[in-house]
Amino acid sequence: MTGSGRAGPSSELTAIKWPVFARILRAFSRDPEAPDFAGGTIKHVGKHALDFLDKTVPRFREMIVGRSVLDYGCGMGDQAVALSLLGAKSVTGYDPYPRFPTTGPPGVTFTATLPTEKFDIVLSSSSMEHFADPERELATMAALTSQDLVIAWAEPWYSHSGHT
Hints:
By secondary structure, the protein is an alpha/beta fold. The chain has helices at residues 11-14, 20-27, 51-56, 60-64, 78-86, 134-143; strands at residues 68-72, 90-94, 108-111, 119-125, 145-152.
């Protein structure tokens, strides 16, 4: 562990000549060999599911209306449901570690299997710190996007639930 409480990168990973964007992304992500941990987003559920995105993504609500959205790393599914209520044409919540409901409201589907179709918007909010290989996940998200890729994350250096 480093002095910040984060696990330092393994020597095998630090020996790789990463591109600049990958080095930046890895600097703000957990060590892939570290155990997963629960993020600080538990207060942002239900009617507050989109609060963080409203604060961090300009014109977020306007960009969603009438578009197909993939919520990549949807967790319990609250954001996916809120996106549907906001007026998204369709919403798919994807998370390989399902904690979402078995069925969603009309217009919302949940899956633990990576979708293959493209979406107008791929959204990943407060998920990056859970990915063992953030560069691969980012490439996957980009490949599934036909128009916009929206990534918003704050952990571990700032948590929108008030914890640092």
